[in-house]
């Protein structure tokens, strides 16, 4: 581990361990107060609950790091270099519709989950129904069971026809053809491994590299449902998940949809760019995705230097400068780290490296300047990433854990000071004071009730405002997203070659079905790249508005609550109870609500990837087949009219049918999505934030609550018993106040450079918009 990274990790661990030890001190104090009947069970229970929440938030949260980039950019090699071992298959295929996740662990291991036979056969049959070779008899195609030899032969015949008649003629990659071919090729290898139910295969350290055959061969990757690997990460402390994401230029829109969803729950991104190719169109699209998610500040750009492509240091530095300049067109002040992932990996492997790669390493090391450049770039990435991860964790620790502990310590101090004073009074004075303070305490709780009603009303008002914004944004008649999507469907261009082929009545059904498949595939990509991203951007705007409205309203609520608290404390002061100054209000512990992500509109794309279309097939290809049979009958068996200026009217009717039914299904989908967006996303956010705000007020009011009836009873105890109780209260109150002073000094000791002070308001807006790892 680099010295700077080690220093940051050690500082965070010391900080965390010290706070945990102090939390235990408070837990012991609460238990001692309860055992000596100096607090009742209800108050002890509230304090213990707060301490449990505080201690729970000190558990090191999982930090997710997404590794993204175009195909063959070197993502797997970089992850291997980070791990210091050749774990992931380098240059794996792009068929897999899942993300390979590696979790930090003391021992290597993991698991792979295989699909069940029911799931495999369902995907096979859905893909079969979408093969372009079927048009006239699609509805009559019998179900395929991959376990039957006869069905596998049928499937081979269909694929041969597709390859001959479609792939070679049109030259376009059909995902369903690739998927079915992979299932066929993988069957002999996995027929005895796949079971009736989803099966999970655990991998011990000796079997760990066996996962490579699943992701390295498309024929086996097709059968894979999910995978998680475990491996030590020497220089990354705590719970870490590194994800090897699909290439941003994958032809399958499902891959981009899954990537978007993983990025929404990630904390950092390592964006890998190959120096051999530089930035490509797919990179610019992915950068727009990252920008929409507001994750550019959390993105580390890695220029993976291809040492065999550069003639020397001058050429290498020119490549770095070029990529940095190109990134600057989209990314302000990009954080670029340049080194060879392969150089670092082979160096880390040492004697375990492949002989050929070891010789290449020796050759590369002869250029001392270039070798030093790689070492420096990799070291800088390690130090910066480690510092940012621990900065994130420390912020959570301070805002969630330390805030609750400080509030509990403050409450213990107030309780001890109050009881000490009253135990020293005569019983008649104590009874009189208790009556006055009980009335003031009731007024405080009444204010809390008023606040609860106000926050509940505000929550409903905010929901109504958000509902209005959602209705306008997704308005079916005037909403920009809906209208632009429908126009995309309406104006979808038809390849002139199709028009020529579609004019032949003998091939009309088959060719129109092929047009339909390409149309659907292109629309799927549009929904992922455009509609889903605009929905996410709109959701982020609503999050900002919700946070701003709640922060503004919370200041007014706190003023009301503070007035009631000050009146109560003033009454205590009149009875000679000198309390610590009030805190500044619930500014940070409630502001981070439950991390939520906008629902993906592209959800149907997941079904498309395996041949199930909710949006575009729902109207039934049987209806389309019958319609086209009528069209073919009207056209007759004569050859096409070469003098026609455009497609026949009946052919246009068929194309219009596909588009109109698609538009109808999209409108239905937008209606459904609009409801999910409101209730499953925005309303849940509002509920979570309002609940946290209420809990912040409620916990303070409950902490100030004193059982004066019990105090009066204890005041009647013998003087020696009261003197003993006062000694215990003095000891515990003093310790609580010492802890408060220690925490203030501890926070000041942490460098302001990597620990923003003052809660969420001092965190850069882009970082504040990302969910902290949940406490």
From TrEMBL:
Claim: Kinase is one of the keywords in the record: no
Keywords annotated in UniProt: Coiled coil, GTP-binding, Hydrolase, Membrane, Nucleotide-binding
Classification via InterPro entries: Dynamin_N, Mitofusin_fam, P-loop_NTPase
GO cellular component: membrane
Domain Dynamin N-terminal positions: 65-287
Keyword Ribonucleoprotein: no
Lineage top rank: taxon: Bacteria
PANTHER family listed in its UniProt record: SARCALUMENIN, TRANSMEMBRANE GTPASE FZO1
Protein name: Dynamin N-terminal domain-containing protein
MF terms (GO), sorted A to Z: GTP binding; GTPase activity
Organism from which the protein derives: Desulfoglaeba alkanexedens ALDC
């Amino acid at each position: 581990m680099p010295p700077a990274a080690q220093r940051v990790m050690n500082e965070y661990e010391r900080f965390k361990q010290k706070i945990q030890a102090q939390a235990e001190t408070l837990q012991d104090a609460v238990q001692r107060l309860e055992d000596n009947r100096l607090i009742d069970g209800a108050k002890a229970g509230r304090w213990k609950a707060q301490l449990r929440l505080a201690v729970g938030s000190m558990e090191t949260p999982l930090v997710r790091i997404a590794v993204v980039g175009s195909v063959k950019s070197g993502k797997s090699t970089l992850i291997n270099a980070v791990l210091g071992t050749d774990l992931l298959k380098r240059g794996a295929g792009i068929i897999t519709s899942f993300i390979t996740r590696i979790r930090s662990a003391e021992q290597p291991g993991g698991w792979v989950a295989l699909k069940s036979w029911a799931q495999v056969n369902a995907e096979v049959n859905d893909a079969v129904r979408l093969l372009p070779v079927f048009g006239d008899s699609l509805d009559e195609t019998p179900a395929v069971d991959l376990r039957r030899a006869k069905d596998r032969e049928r499937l081979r015949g269909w694929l041969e026809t597709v390859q001959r008649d479609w792939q070679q003629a049109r030259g376009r990659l059909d995902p369903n053809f690739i998927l079915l071919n992979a299932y066929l090729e993988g069957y002999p290898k996995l027929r005895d491994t796949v079971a009736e139910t989803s099966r999970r295969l655990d991998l011990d350290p000796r079997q760990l590299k066996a996962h490579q055959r699943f992701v390295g061969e498309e024929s086996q990757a097709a059968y894979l449902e999910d995978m998680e690997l475990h491996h030590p990460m020497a220089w990354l402390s705590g719970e870490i998940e590194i994800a090897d994401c699909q290439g941003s230029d994958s032809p399958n829109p499902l891959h981009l949809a899954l990537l978007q969803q993983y990025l929404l729950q990630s904390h950092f991104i390592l964006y890998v760019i190959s120096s051999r190719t530089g930035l490509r169109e797919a990179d610019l699209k992915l950068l727009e995705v990252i920008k929409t998610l507001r994750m550019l500040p959390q993105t580390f750009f890695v220029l993976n230097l291809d040492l065999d492509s550069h003639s020397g240091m001058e050429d290498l530095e020119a490549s770095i400068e070029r990529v940095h300049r190109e990134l600057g067109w989209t990314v302000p002040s990009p954080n670029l780290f340049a080194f060879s992932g392969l150089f670092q990996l082979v160096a880390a492997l040492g004697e375990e490296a492949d002989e050929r790669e070891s010789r290449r390493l020796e050759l590369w090391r002869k250029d001392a300047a270039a070798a030093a450049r790689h070492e420096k770039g990799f070291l800088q990435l390690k130090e910066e990433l480690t510092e940012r991860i621990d900065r994130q964790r420390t912020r959570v620790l301070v805002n969630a854990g330390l805030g609750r502990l400080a509030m509990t310590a403050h409450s213990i101090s107030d309780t001890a000071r109050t009881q000490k004073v009253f135990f020293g009074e005569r019983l008649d004075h104590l009874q009189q004071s208790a009556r006055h303070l009980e009335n003031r305490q009731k007024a405080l709780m009444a204010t809390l009730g008023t606040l609860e009603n106000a926050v509940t009303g505000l929550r409903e008002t905010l929901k109504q405002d958000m509902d209005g914004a959602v209705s306008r944004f997704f308005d079916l008649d005037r909403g920009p997203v809906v209208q632009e999507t429908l126009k995309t469907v309406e104006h979808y261009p038809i390849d002139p070659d199709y028009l020529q082929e579609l004019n032949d009545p003998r091939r009309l059904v088959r060719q129109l079905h092929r047009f339909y498949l390409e149309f659907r595939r292109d629309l799927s990509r549009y929904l992922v790249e455009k509609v889903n991203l605009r929905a996410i951007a709109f959701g982020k705007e609503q999050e900002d508005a919700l946070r701003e409205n709640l922060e503004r309203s919370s200041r007014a609520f706190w003023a009301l609550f503070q007035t009631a608290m000050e009146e109560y404390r003033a009454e205590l002061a009149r009875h000679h109870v000198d309390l610590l100054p009030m805190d500044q209000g619930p500014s940070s512990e409630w502001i981070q609500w439950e991390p939520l992500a906008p629902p993906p509109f592209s959800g149907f794309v997941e079904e498309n990837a395996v041949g199930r279309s909710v949006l575009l097939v729902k109207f039934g290809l049987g209806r389309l087949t019958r319609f086209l049979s009528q069209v073919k009958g009207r056209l007759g068996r004569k050859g096409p009219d070469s003098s026609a200026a455009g497609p026949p009217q009946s052919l246009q009717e068929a194309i219009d049918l596909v588009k109109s039914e698609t538009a109808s299904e999209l409108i239905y989908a937008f209606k459904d999505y609009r409801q999910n967006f409101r209730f499953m996303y925005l309303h849940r956010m509002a509920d979570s934030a309002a609940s946290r705000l209420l809990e912040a007020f409620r916990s303070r009011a409950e902490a100030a609550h004193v059982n004066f009836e019990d105090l009066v009873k204890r005041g009647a105890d013998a003087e020696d018993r009261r003197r003993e109780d006062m000694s215990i209260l003095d000891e515990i109150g003093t310790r609580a106040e010492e802890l408060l002073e220690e925490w203030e000094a501890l926070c000041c000791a942490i460098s302001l450079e990597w620990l923003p002070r003052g809660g969420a308001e001092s965190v850069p807006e882009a970082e504040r918009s990302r969910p902290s790892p949940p406490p």
